[in-house]
């Protein structure tokens, strides 16, 4: 009201000096200034209140990733709150991984990179790259650039707006603003003074009449105004010819860093150097292939592998498979017996509760004293249920021991069959034993929950059932032959009532994976026959005589084919074979591994490279030990001990090397101090050096030395040292 009175008095006092048209023009300018002030206030409040300007997924450039096998662009979730850019792993991550203050920063557009990523960089005041982002959609990238530019210059624009002259001072408004119109290309006053300085804009204002001044906005959007001015300026600069190059033309005009300087490397990717490394790697390996063929000839013989696997007399070994099936059925039927006893006791307990409730109601009506026979009956029921649980657990333990001992005893004492079938049978025995342990552990928890009349997660009626399951089940509905048969064939070691399932079997996809499996297995056998076997045989004399320099040379020579064979083995087992099983059985959860190759310490590697075993150890070993009151270190020690015993059994049983030194057991038990060491190195020197330490310690040195020691012990126990080949 006060502002309106002052405006009216101002109009009356100046009526004698100005015409009616001048007063109307001033009032119109006043309204537009008020609208502009409100818009600036909204921007300032949004900035101070950290309102989210923009959010979504972008690709972040990681300069420490080698671009040969993986993309350096990682998809991350970003939010722009006021003038702060926050980075999250996903949109469900509660805490930001990194934050960047955008005040005073600039954005540099890089265009299309790798034919896919529309890329831009955020630079600080010293033109150092703070972050490099991209999007597969150009419009999305440009909208982020606009938002970041608006957030970066908000303080400058607010201070510039506050310095505008107030009403009553000398003020010139060259082109009024339409109220409610979007201000500038970036939603701010950034283009106002640029347009006032633009010659084209001045010519346009001079050539317009009063009506156009009142209707055409000077603070326009991308379709007019500042964008046209910027495009015209760029065209004018492009058309302007460069000055002639004479003898005195200065060529050093500004401070520039070298291309390979540390502050410039993140700004400029080096695909040429990566391509050079790939070419050198291919050329070096091709030379080694030719050298190996010239020295040893063609040793690869796939028929030998097939004959060793398929032919021969396997009478004793074949008996192991029915033994494993019998142990599985024994575990199923003992669990069904325990479930029947539990349901009988639960039904009896419900009847007692109903009877007790009826007696209480009757006695309370007659005023009689409550009997205590129900408490005695409940205690008897609890005692009988405890006996049932103990008996079922004991039978499960016996079944698991028989499942482990009987096949391994047959494998160890029989001379029939080759090493390859024995290795496969030993691995299958350990897998079935682990499955039966998980089956007993899971059903024991479900059985005890049914005694308390509770529903466990994953069962029908629970708050969080398994997504994608064909039919929700509840204990003991899962105790069927078809259920345990599916579990025994499924690519998992941890039992649950139902599993997530896919809709159908993709036959073409399955055939492609089978073809890849054949090719990968052929490559694995070729590497073993052509490279690993000769290198190991030639290493026996330096190993026996402890000639350290020749032995070191043999270890390094053996490390490359061992890495190839080990990576191929991982790809065959965890990607191809488990995915083939999952597709054939419509098994939904196919996260069998994570990106362990990016592990920055040995702890990350052991948690990510073999998720079926990791999940089994976590739920079946680690969690029960922790629930007994053990510390994290003690529980971790137990986990590594169980893992070391299982790995050692996979070697000594097929090779019959009980008198040899347990190299694999000691190596796995040494992983605990090595995990602490690699974590310290990661914290001291960074993630890149942690990843390099992991590769060197585990693959380049650890596996070749372990392989050499086992081969040497095997030859020594058999009474001869292999002579040098070639």
Automatic annotation (TrEMBL):
Taxonomy, superkingdom: Eukaryota
One function term, GO molecular function aspect: diacylglycerol O-acyltransferase activity
Main location: endoplasmic reticulum
Enzyme class: transferase
Transmembrane stretches, start-end: 310-334, 390-411, 423-442, 514-532, 563-582, 661-680, 692-712
InterPro entries found in the cross-reference section: MBOAT_fam (IPR004299), Oat_ACAT_DAG_ARE (IPR014371), PH-like_dom_sf (IPR011993), PH_domain (IPR001849)
Presence of the UniProt keyword Nucleotide-binding in the record: no
Name of the protein described by the UniProt record: diacylglycerol O-acyltransferase
Organism this protein belongs to: Ostreobium quekettii
């Amino acid at each position: 009201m006060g502002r309106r009175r002052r405006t009216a008095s101002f109009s009356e006092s100046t009526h004698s000096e100005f015409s009616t048209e001048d007063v109307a023009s001033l009032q119109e300018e006043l309204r537009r200034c008020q609208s502009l002030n409100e818009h600036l206030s909204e921007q300032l409040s949004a900035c101070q209140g950290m309102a989210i300007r923009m959010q979504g997924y972008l690709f972040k450039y990681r300069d420490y990733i080698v671009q040969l096998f993986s993309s350096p662009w990682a998809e991350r979730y970003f939010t722009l709150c006021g003038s702060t850019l926050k980075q999250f792993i996903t949109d469900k991550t509660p805490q930001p991984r990194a934050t960047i203050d955008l005040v005073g920063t600039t954005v540099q557009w890089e265009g299309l990179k790798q034919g896919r990523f529309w890329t831009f960089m955020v630079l600080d005041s010293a033109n150092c790259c703070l972050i490099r982002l991209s999007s597969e959609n150009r419009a999305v990238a440009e909208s982020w650039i606009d938002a970041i530019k608006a957030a970066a210059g908000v303080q400058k624009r607010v201070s510039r707006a506050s310095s505008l002259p107030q009403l009553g001072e000398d003020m010139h408004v060259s082109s009024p603003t339409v109220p409610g119109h979007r201000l500038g290309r970036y939603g701010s006053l950034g283009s106002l003074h640029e347009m006032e300085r633009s010659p084209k804009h001045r010519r346009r204002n001079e050539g317009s009449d009063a009506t156009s001044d009142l209707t055409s906005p000077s603070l326009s959007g991308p379709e007019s105004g500042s964008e046209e001015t910027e495009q015209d300026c760029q065209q004018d600069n492009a058309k302007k010819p460069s000055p002639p190059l004479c003898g005195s033309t200065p060529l050093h005009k500004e401070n520039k860093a070298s291309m390979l300087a540390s502050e410039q490397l993140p700004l400029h990717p080096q695909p040429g150097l990566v391509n050079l490394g790939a070419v050198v790697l291919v050329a070096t390996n091709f030379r080694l292939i030719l050298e190996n063929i010239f020295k040893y000839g063609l040793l690869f013989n796939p028929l030998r592998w097939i004959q060793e696997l398929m032919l021969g007399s396997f009478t004793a070994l074949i008996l192991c498979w029915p033994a494993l099936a019998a142990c599985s059925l024994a575990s199923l039927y003992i669990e069904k017996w325990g479930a029947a006893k539990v349901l009988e006791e639960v039904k009896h307990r419900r009847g007692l509760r109903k009877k007790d409730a009826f007696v209480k109601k009757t006695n309370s009506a007659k005023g009689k004293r409550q009997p205590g026979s129900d408490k005695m009956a409940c205690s008897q029921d609890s005692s009988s249920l405890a006996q049932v649980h103990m008996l079922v657990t004991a039978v499960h333990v016996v079944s698991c021991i028989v499942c482990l001992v009987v096949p391994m005893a047959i494998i160890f004492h029989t001379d029939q069959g080759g090493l390859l079938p024995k290795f496969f049978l030993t691995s299958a025995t350990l897998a079935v034993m682990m499955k039966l342990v998980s089956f007993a552990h899971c059903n024991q928890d479900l059985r005890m929950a049914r005694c308390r009349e509770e529903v466990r997660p994953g069962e029908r009626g629970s708050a969080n059932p398994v997504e994608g399951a064909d039919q929700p089940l509840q204990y003991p509905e899962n105790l069927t032959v078809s259920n345990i048969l599916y579990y025994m064939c499924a690519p998992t070691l941890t039992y649950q009532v139902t599993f997530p399932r896919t809709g159908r079997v993709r036959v073409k996809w399955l055939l492609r994976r089978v073809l890849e499996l054949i090719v990968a297995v052929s490559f694995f056998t070729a590497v073993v026959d052509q490279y690993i076997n000769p290198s190991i045989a030639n290493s026996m004399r330096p190993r026996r005589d402890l000639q350290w320099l020749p032995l070191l040379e043999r270890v390094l020579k053996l490390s490359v084919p061992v890495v190839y064979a080990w990576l191929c083995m991982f790809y065959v087992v965890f990607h191809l074979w488990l995915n083939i099983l999952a597709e054939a059985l419509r098994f939904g959860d196919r996260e069998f591994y994570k990106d362990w190759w990016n592990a920055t310490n040995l702890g990350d590697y052991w948690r990510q490279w073999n998720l079926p075993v990791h999940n089994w150890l976590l739920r079946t070993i680690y969690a029960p030990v922790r629930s007994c009151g053990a510390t994290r270190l003690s529980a971790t020690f137990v986990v590594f001990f169980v893992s070391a015993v299982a790995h050692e059994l996979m070697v000594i049983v097929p090779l019959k090397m009980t008198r040899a030194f347990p190299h694999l057991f000691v190596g796995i038990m040494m992983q605990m101090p090595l995990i602490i060491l690699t974590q310290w190195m990661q914290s001291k020197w960074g993630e890149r050096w942690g990843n390099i330490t992991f590769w060197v310690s585990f693959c380049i040195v650890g596996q070749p030395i372990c392989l050499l020691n086992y081969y040497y012990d095997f030859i020594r126990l058999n009474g001869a040292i292999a002579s040098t080949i070639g």
